[in-house]
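To: structure desk
From: M.T.
Subject: fold request, one chain
Message: Could you run this one when you get a chance? Sequence is below, nothing fancy, just the single chain.
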Amino acid sequence: MVFQTKNTVILLLICCVITISCNKNEKNMPVVSVDVKVIPMVHSQDVFTIISDSGITRVRMKTKVWDVYSNGGDQYWYFPKKIYAEQLDSLFHVESSILADTAYYYEKKQLWHAIGNVVATNSEGRRFETSELFWNQKVPEKAMNAFYTQKPVKIIEPDSTITLGLTGFTADQSLNIIRLFSVKANLLVDESDTIQRNTVGSDSIKQHQ
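Reply: Done. Structure tokens follow.
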């Protein structure tokens, strides 16, 4: 019994030394703070996904890199290496699409911000080319501030008619009803590549329903 008691005391002393040593090491360990504004909460690569809102499919998206950040509790998504997104109706038909070099999406605002070689296309084949484009998913379907930009825009119709807007445009959710500002000219390209130029007054409104 005496031998066992001595061994027990020695074992307890060893455990105490180890515990004290571990506590000291923990105190000396550097505390690393993670800035969620700089380091993404979620990082994904080669993404192809469908985004739903209230159980309804809204957007089909493909991108190489998808990072999720938090800014004061307001999460936003960042797409640094190209993104292609399609807006879908209830029957999964594509109402419009956006292709861009870079994009942000702010969850609370439901606002997309596309930057760099932006190409937006509606269901009729009308194409919008600009350097920056905003898409607000929160506004009503026919509201004229669903898509908007203040950057120069080139609109290419299915019949090859090109409209140049110097200070941007606004449009509804389907990109069918358009309001152009400071329009420079309409260019009609025929099969022989001749161009007819027609000067158009500023602040014109083009409607296609």
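Reply (cont.): Residues 42-207 form a domain with the lipopolysaccharide transport protein A fold fold (CATH 2.60.450.10). Let me know if you need anything else for the meeting.
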